[in-house]
Amino acid sequence: MNVLVVGGAGYLGGAVVDLLLRTGHHPRVYDLLLYEESYRKPVDFSYGDVRDVERLRHEFVRADAVIWLAAIVGDRACDLDRDATISINEKSVAFLANNYHGRILFSSTCSVYGEQKDASLTETSALNPLSLYAATKIASETYLSKKNALIFRLGTLFGVGDTFSRVRLDLVVNTFTVQAFHRGRITVIGGEQFRPLLHVRDAAQAIVDSIASPITGIFNLHRQNVRIGDLAFQVRNHFPDLIIESIAMPATDARDYRVNSDKARSQLKFAPVHSIDAGIEDLKNILEANRLQPIDNPRYVNARHLAGVNNLSTVPNQFDVVGPSRGNGHGETIVLSEIANPSAKQNKPLAAA
Ligand SMILES: NC(=O)c1ccc[n+]([C@@H]2O[C@H](COP(=O)([O-])OP(=O)(O)OC[C@H]3O[C@@H](n4cnc5c(N)ncnc54)[C@H](O)[C@@H]3O)[C@@H](O)[C@H]2O)c1
Q1: pTM of the model
Q2: Pocket-forming residues, ligand 1, beta carbon under 6 Å
Q3: CA distance 254 to 258
Q4: Could you give the number of structural domains in the chain?
Q5: Average pLDDT along the chain, 353 residues, taken 10 residues at a time
Q6: In a domain, 343, yes or no
Q7: Is residue 222 part of a domain?
Q8: Full domain range(s) for residue 220
Q9: 193 in any annotated domain
C-alpha cells in the first residue's frame, strides 16, 4: 500500500517507516523536520507543514492509508505556543477527517486519562485531560470518530526505534537511563504515580499491523503499568552503582493512570514483545558507544528544543485558530511524592541507593 506517514520523521515515525518498508509497503513521509537537520532515510519524503492544507490535500490523493503521527508532543512543549499547538494537533486533524476518506491510523495518548485511581482504565472510562496536549488529542479523537480510523491511545514510549531518527530523551524510561549513565544518579520527585509504558517498536508494530484491517475505534496500547519509583530501581539493575535520590514536593504534574489494553489484545491481536529492560539496554548501548552527541543537545527534549524555535506560528497556517483555552498548563516534570524500593519493600524516601 502507499502509506502517507505524517510526522514520519519523528521518534515513533522512524520505527513505523522501517516496519512499513520491511512489510512491503511504500511509505511517504510528510514532515516539517522540527527536530531534525535532515531526513536521510531512503524513502519518499515531502517537507511540509500539516497546516499547509493545499499541500496536504495533494498528498492525500496518492495515499491508500494515512498514519498520522504529527503533533507537538508533551505537555510543556504544547504550552509554549498554545495557538500553534491547537492548530497543529487539532485543526489539522479536523482537516484530515473532512478531506481524506481512506484508512486512517491516528496516535492519541493515554494522557487523556489524566489522574485517576481506577487501576484498569479502559477505552470507555471517563477522561480527565490535565493539559492542552491531552485536550487536543481528545478533540482529534472526536473528529475521527465517524471515519475509517483506528485511534491508538499510546502509553509512554521508550527504547530506540530505528537507526536514523532522534531518540527522545524526555520520556521517563529514556530520561532515567540517560541520567543513570551520565550522572550516576536519578532524581525521583516522589514515586507513587503510575505510567503505562510501551516500547516504541511495539507501538509501531501495532500501527502497521492494522493498516489493512477493517476495525475502527479507540484502543489503549501499553505493555505494563509501572510505578515511577519502581522504575528507578529497575533502571538500577542496569547501573549497579546508581544513586537514587528522592525529593518530596507537591506534584505539579498530577498525571497518574493505569490502563487496560485487553481490547487491543483481543481484537487487534496486540502482543508487545519488547521489555522495559530491553529498552534500557538498547539505549545504554548507544550511550556507551557515545553515539548521542552532545547528550545535552536540546534537540533530544521536545520542550527544550521548541523553546528555541521562534517560528512555530509563522509557518503557513490556513486554519481558523480561535480555540477555547484548554487544560491547566501543567508542566511535564515528573513530580512525585514518595519513592519506594520494591525489593526492600520499604516506603521511606531514599537519598542514595
Ligand atoms: N512518544 C510517546 O511516548 C507518545 C505517547 C503517546 C502518544 N504519542 C503520539 O505519537 C505521535 C508521535 O510521537 P513522537 O514521540 O514520535 O513525537 P516526535 O515529536 O518525535 O515526532 C513528531 C513529528 O511530527 C512532526 N511535526 C510536528 N509538527 C508538525 C507540523 N506542523 N507539520 C508537519 N510535521 C510536524 C515533527 O517534525 C516530528 O517529526 C504523536 O502524535 C504523539 O502525540 C507519543
Answers
A1: 0.90
A2: 7, 9-13, 31-35, 49-51, 69-73, 88, 107, 109, 154, 156-157, 168, 171, 302
A3: 13
A4: 1
A5: 98 98 98 95 97 96 98 96 96 98 98 90 94 97 98 98 95 97 91 93 98 97 95 97 84 80 98 98 96 92 89 59 36 24 27 23
A6: no
A7: yes
A8: 2-307
A9: yes
